[in-house]
């Protein structure tokens, strides 16, 4: 028989008693602070529809979470077998109990991983599960979770309050009608959910359906996009609209952070060739390099915080991409260079007090080598938290050890959960806050940080840095 | 006088008492498990000849160990002075006592290094040495070790049993006659020693004597190699023969893991030009890039596990290479890129359940950035253990911290000792097992891994992962 | 009210009691050893003029320290506002009390950074400050520090003795008249201050005013530089003169450590084109690549230790560079490659026992991948300590963990402070020695290093390695 599955109140802290005691003391001061969530991928429909529900345990925990599905896939489980929808509408497993049983029987695959940590936090902390999942208890756990999900207390809006989310930013295509936000506002619901302006699909000339994307952009902006000037105008219009409805940030994902301005004529020519379906080799990379500078200009002018996520080779596995589309786990990081690539942008806007540029990396070699020195010099530059594959207890530790020396704490931006999985948000913030408390505690016990500053520093890490960096009102 | 030289029973464990106690408890459960050695460079003649001996202490500890010789060389000791054979047959020191004295007088050079750790494990644990080597005790220690080596208990086959080696894979050129294995089998000796198929010298068009290598390959396969098709046929024949005699794996060493298919006509043309001694610039790199995919195809078909070791610039020091040949310590790692380089291979075989591709790196920047995400997605990909310069207490620690988050434990492959020095094998496994026990212990005490799983996880790390990854029968 | 600001006697040590106790015990054996400072940027005029003073607290702590000014600048403080001189002589703040108040009000920006650690060491340890700086106590602290600075005990020569500096190397352009050293020697002052030969501005064809630099080089050498041969002759003459006056080392700073010989004719042609103001694209990089080998030759011949600092993209921020000139905080590291780049140099001089080549990096990915293997093989190569952005408690820890495994301790070179800020020198050595003591202590408690060796190893790290590597006489 299995022993009870519980959460250690001192979990994730250093094992040495003096650090542990200080970490515990510090953590207690931030454990109940509201969650600041300035970057993520939660579906806004969860909140625009007051009757939205999460579905089955499998709908909640497995199908939408590419951290989970990629791990199962890597062990030879076909994605169809765990209910991931095929693009072609082909057969996939629809029996969620069956999927859940498989998942529980493979729970050991997540031992020692951040997914394993988040799952336990959620299962024990939110759903009251008291046994580690396995083949034998799978059905019972399914019932326990399904029963809770069926209660009104587990509707998204209810959980938003219970999780104590202060603010949640979503991630939206530049042509998003933003009707979910209008509905939320109109409904009188008090939750603070904000869109984020994401123009990748209209900036990357090589994006699937780029021309259609641009036409939809024009429609959403009420602008007839027929040339580069009207395209820029449409982008500006949409940014204005995003701001109006609450956005404080834009988000840009690129494989490489190359920036290089084009002359107005070159930019117009690139755009025109693309509209005509006549893109030349190299055009897409050059145009993106130019548009990042153009977007920095817009951010400097309209005040939307500019987030730059670099270094992911998207859809690396063609077989998975063709069958299941993007975001199915086949994104693999690549070596990234910021110092030379960002220089043209920083030359123009790095000293501009109006711009806030937040950099994210998947290449840890750039933390101490490039990112910390850039953020430690340019007024406009800030560092995003450890992201994606690096959002883990180890990743957080390495991040703090590698960047604070040079950037200091106050050019970092606290935490963001960057998740599609709404119910995992408290777990992710708990891990960050505990890891941060532990890091501050160790600096205090080792005499690096003055004890009197510790609680204030942790409060910054737990939420205030994120608020300030993302220009979200302090409460 | 020197105080006694002993091995601390808690060595290499964390100093914090709760982690140390848990590590000690866990380590005890695996300390006596048989050693699984799926990759290494031990000379099979040690076991095919029942009367083989190790020679002098210098033959055992110094001359064949390029970890030792390169360190001495780096401090200005000519390799001739420590008995390394010159290619030209020129003078080298033959007085082993003299070499041993020099070595003992320089023992401090190994303080804090893995070689220092292994040496102490061997000298104390295996040879009963009770004093740290120095100039004063060198002769006495020489006598102690030589006396033991002269006993029948210190013959290789005896030690194989005493070390409790479950299985030992060697590393063999593709044209190896494999007669050592036939002799072993014929002799009725029960030790499980297996060859590994290593075709680098017939795949790399730029390898010294490539044409002769290919001719020898053909002879060993009984195939008249005169074109690309017969070359492929010879390779397949030899793989069949290696499998027959016990091989479960192939091994490929490349400077860069670039993969790119050639058309059949191009491949044939490259091969033909090389046979004619007419290789063009770039041919060798292109042909290797092609052959890695071809080798993946063969592995998918015949089931030999494909090991890929990338990132070593071989024979960097021409002076040393000319005088002493390869493997004389002049191999230096280089920056390595896997994400883009492996894509053509993975596109073809990364989703193939028949293929097991084990990746090794000397570039730690690739652990979290590329390797863990690749192994955490592609069913065919697994990660090899920290290799060569990275096989150390610190290297193991960093490896576990950097890869487990994303790959999980079950896409890693435990440990392999990768050594020529047979007597160092138990020391290397001891270091790995103690470091692993300590890592698991810390995860348990910090609440990351459930206590009930700990012993099972450590058992995997200590041998079962290696068995499974290398398709070696579970006992 | 603020609690007293003090230095914990166990600061920077591990929190675990057995490591802490051993670190404390070991540190006590080196705490009072003289400081060996083989590389830095202290102005020799501080010592050539017996009446030199440090000026105000702002002259001492803020204006000349680009670690401090870049951090303030990164938070939007214009450099003019903290008294940094503009190239054009434009307005900058001259009220040092006002600058000091601003600095104290922003003291939290340095929490957790090495600058914060050094500042506290200096303020508490040297100036007897007993409160953490803040807006409220800024004026009082200013008075306390200014009063001490006004006493004869705080003159540079006095502090040199009080700091127990055994030897201090400065950094001097190749055409430096070296009159400061003549004055020091003539004055009968016993302090050991030595120049270092730095030829970057006459080697880099693209350096500002290269032609004038070369003419000044010729004048300082008494050589009419009109062609490549006379240029080489002038360099050799100046090296001879630097040696004569006490230099034991040369220093070379490059963006990339590319080395590649030119033929005599090519080198002459490059030089001639540059003299004629007719440099072609690529000339500067090729010429530097050639000159690094030429400098290695000179070092092999004249015995000056060759330091190579690679990987900084200088003056990244054109706005700051134009207004304030070089060394104003806008230097950002870049990815660096040593294995391939250094091969042509090492092929020629890597095995030469006369050469000592000390390598420095800002790219930590190269520690275990390239630098440790190079120093662990080539007799000529040694590793410099963690440098600039990496000179911190975390940086030192990572350095020791990443390089000692492969290089061993005895191919490293201990510490150098590399600072312009003379008063920060004891603080920097204290951090290094405490971090080193802690590292050795942990190796002992974990059973990696024999207890009997520990004190000797720490003594090496605390100064003897630096003396030996820089060919400074042992006392």
Structural overview:
- 3 copies of one chain form a homotrimer.
- Chain A has helices at residues 17-30, 45-48, 57-61, 66-74, 96-105, 114-125, 138-149, 156-162, 179-187, 200-203, 210-221, 228-244, 264-275, 283-302, 318-324, 343-349, 365-375, 393-407, 425-445, 451-469; strands spanning 35-37, 165-169, 172-173, 193-194, 197-198, 249-254, 305-310, 312-313, 332-333, 357-360, 381-383.
- Chain A contains 20 helices and 11 strands.
- The first copy, chain A, is globular.
- The first copy, chain A, is an alpha/beta fold and 475 residues long.
- A 4-stranded parallel β-sheet of chain A has the order 6-7-10-11, with helices on one face. A 3-stranded parallel β-sheet of chain A has the order 1-2-4.
- The model of chain A has no long low-confidence stretch (mean pLDDT 97).
- In chain A, strand 10, helix 17 (365-375) and strand 11 form a beta-alpha-beta unit.
- Helices cover 48% and strands 8% of the residues of chain A.
- Chains in contact: A-B, A-C, B-C.
- Chains B and C meet through helix 4, helix 6, helix 15, strand 9 and helix 18 of B and helix 16, helix 17, helix 18, helix 19 and helix 20 of C.
């Amino acid at each position: 028989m299995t022993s009870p599955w519980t959460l250690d109140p001192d979990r994730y802290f250093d094992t040495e008693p003096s650090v542990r005691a200080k970490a515990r003391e510090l953590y207690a001061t931030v454990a109940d602070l509201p969650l600041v969530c300035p970057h993520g991928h939660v579906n806004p429909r969860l909140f625009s529809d007051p009757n939205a529900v999460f579905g089955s345990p499998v709908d909640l925990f497995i199908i939408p979470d590419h951290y989970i599905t990629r791990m199962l896939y890597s062990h030879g489980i076909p994605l169809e077998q765990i209910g991931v929808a095929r693009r072609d509408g082909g057969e996939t497993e629809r029996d969620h109990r069956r999927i859940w049983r498989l998942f529980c029987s493979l729970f050991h695959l997540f031992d020692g991983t951040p997914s394993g940590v988040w799952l336990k936090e959620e299962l024990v902390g939110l759903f009251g599960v008291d046994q580690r999942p396995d083949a034998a208890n799978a059905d019972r756990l399914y019932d326990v979770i399904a029963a809770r999900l069926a209660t009104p207390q587990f509707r998204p809006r209810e959980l938003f309050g219970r999780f104590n989310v202060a603010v949640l930013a979503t991630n939206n295509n530049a042509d998003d009608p933003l009707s979910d936000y209008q509905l939320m506002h109109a409904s009188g619901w008090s939750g603070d959910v904000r869109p984020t302006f994401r123009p990748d699909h209209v900036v990357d000339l090589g994006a699937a359906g780029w021309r259609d994307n641009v036409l939809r952009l024009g429609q959403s902006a009420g602008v007839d996009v027929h040339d580069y000037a009207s395209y820029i105008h449409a982008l500006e219009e949409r940014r204005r609209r995003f701001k109006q409805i609450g956005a404080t940030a834009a988000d840009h994902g690129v494989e490489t952070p190359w920036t290089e301005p084009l002359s107005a004529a070159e930019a117009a020519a690139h755009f025109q060739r693309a509209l005509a379906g006549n893109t030349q080799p190299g055009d897409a990379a050059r145009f993106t390099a130019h548009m990042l500078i153009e977007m920095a200009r817009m951010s400097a002018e309209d005040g939307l915080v500019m987030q730059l996520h670099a270094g992911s080779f998207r859809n690396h596995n063609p077989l998975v991409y063709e069958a299941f589309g993007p975001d199915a786990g086949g994104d693999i990081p690549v070596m990234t260079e910021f110092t030379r690539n960002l220089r043209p942008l920083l030359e123009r806007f790095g000293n501009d007090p109006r711009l806030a540029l937040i950099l994210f990396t998947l290449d840890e070699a750039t933390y101490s080598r490039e990112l910390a020195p850039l953020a430690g010099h340019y007024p406009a530059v800030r560092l995003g938290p450890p992201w994606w594959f690096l959002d883990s207890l180890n990743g957080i530790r390495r991040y703090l050890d590698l960047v604070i020396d040079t950037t200091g704490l106050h050019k970092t931006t606290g935490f963001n959960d960057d998740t599609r999985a709404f119910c995992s948000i408290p777990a992710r913030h708990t891990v960050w806050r505990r890891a941060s408390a532990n890091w501050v505690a160790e600096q205090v016990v080792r005499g690096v940080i003055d004890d009197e500053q510790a609680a204030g520093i942790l409060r910054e890490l737990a939420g205030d840095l994120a608020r300030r960096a993302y220009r979200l009102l302090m409460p």
